[in-house]
Design a protein that fits this description.
TIM Barrel, 7-stranded parallel β-sheet, 12 helices, binds zinc ion
Length: 391
């Protein structure tokens, strides 16, 4: 009944306007069609050759052979088409020129993970606001940020009330607190630094992201301080104090943290954060990352290459669709700002990454210059942000 009344009303409205309704079968004109790519969208379990049609800033169809016409067409034959990549451990807010660099890697959403603390938060927020995609910031627990010499080895560098004030001023852009608990970042203050980070986010209901590895306290003491929704980054950081015991068994506290909803992130980085041997040993246990991220840019923008980081997990035996999930839908689930991202489902914002999956011999390097040679590698091959082609 309701739909019949709706139809009658619709027809009447059209008659009043004097415009005949277009027959449904007639081809629609789209703003952009990405044609013939292998669409891999783990959010809906899709891996098939499809066209992706976009109107304005939204995905409006994902189907075989969409008729068109379209104002613009991208030929994606031979390429992989995925939701825009989401990098939850980035440092793209650290320099004004970084956002334009990372989008070329297919990254349409990122989180700056603590490049700055309360002293510099306005600067990082301004860079994130100007980014082509969707960008947010984790404020560092130390007032000077990740890159300052003043670290948590001196607890006077942590200002809980001041940092809460900075979060309150940027409630829309600051989405959590970043903590580093390696020996050189926090020394014996690691657990106290974590407690103070939780104190900072408490009133706001925000997560913390903790950079683990090479720390003072054992992982078994660190994990109980993390709550549901918090993020562990550099999950495969080498000894001392990795996530497994001397026999290579994942600590029960780490397993318990995952069960209660703590997220485990890769965080490639460039300086001591992962090595192949630790990664391979942990991957063998089946303890795989929830999300894959770059942690690049604090050092050198030319080495940002999210598709390269994703490809390391192809080498490690992770199926392609799961690798893509770790850089799209899984990452989108971590922060509410990405709640409509990480998917190509109809109605979603039109953020799309194109990649090429090439076969050959490719060297993958860890943070200690150890090399593994794989047979497949993803390369960036185009990106669409909010319906507009960027590259
Ligand atoms: Zn980092």
């Amino acid at each position: 009944m309701i739909s019949r009344r709706g139809l009658a009303f619709g027809a009447g409205a059209l008659m009043v306007a004097g415009v005949p309704a277009a027959p449904r079968a007639q081809a629609q004109t789209y703003d952009l069609i990405i044609r013939g790519g292998r669409v891999i969208d783990p959010s809906v379990g899709l891996d098939a050759i499809r066209d992706v049609a976009i109107m304005g800033t939204s995905i409006v169809a994902v189907e075989p052979n969409i008729a068109g016409p379209a104002t613009e067409t991208i030929d994606a034959r031979g390429k992989i088409v995925t939701p825009g990549l989401i990098d939850i451990h980035s440092h793209a807010a650290n320099k004004p020129e970084f956002p334009a660099a990372v989008v070329r890697e297919g990254i349409t959403g990122w989180i700056d993970a603590g490049s700055v603390g309360m002293d510099d938060i306005d600067r990082a927020v301004a860079v994130a606001r100007g980014a082509p995609g969707i960008a947010r910031v984790l404020i560092h627990v130390v007032r000077g940020g990740a890159l300052s010499r003043a670290n948590a080895r001196d607890l006077n560098n942590i200002d809980v009330a001041g940092t809460q004030g900075a979060i309150a001023r940027h409630r829309d852009m600051v989405v959590g607190v970043k903590v580093q608990i390696s020996e050189n970042n926090a020394g014996g203050n690691d657990l106290e630094t974590l407690r103070r980070a939780q104190e900072m986010v408490g009133p706001f209901g925000l997560p913390i992201m903790v950079h683990i590895g090479q720390g003072h306290s054992p992982m078994r003491a660190v994990m109980p301080l993390l709550k549901r929704g918090d993020i562990v980054t550099h999950l495969y950081a080498p000894a001392p104090n990795p996530i497994y015991d001397e026999q290579g068994r994942i600590f029960p506290e780490v397993m318990a943290a995952r069960r209660r909803g703590v997220i485990f992130d890769f965080g490639n980085g460039s300086n001591g954060h992962y090595e192949w041997a630790t990664t391979e040993r942990a991957m063998k246990t089946g303890f795989w990352p929830d999300t894959i991220s770059t942690d690049f840019l604090s050092v050198n923008p030319s080495v940002v290459d999210f598709p390269n980081v994703l490809s390391k997990f192809l080498y490690l035996g992770m199926p392609l669709s799961q690798v893509i999930a770790c850089g799209t839908v899984n990452a989108a689930r971590v922060f509410p700002c990405f709640s409509d991202r990480g998917t190509l489902n109809v109605g979603a914002p039109a953020d799309v990454a194109l990649m090429e999956l090439r076969t050959g011999r490719f060297d993958f390097v860890d943070n200690f210059k150890a090399v593994r040679t794989g047979t497949q590698r993803l390369f960036p091959a185009g990106v669409v942000v909010a319906g507009k082609r960027v590259t």
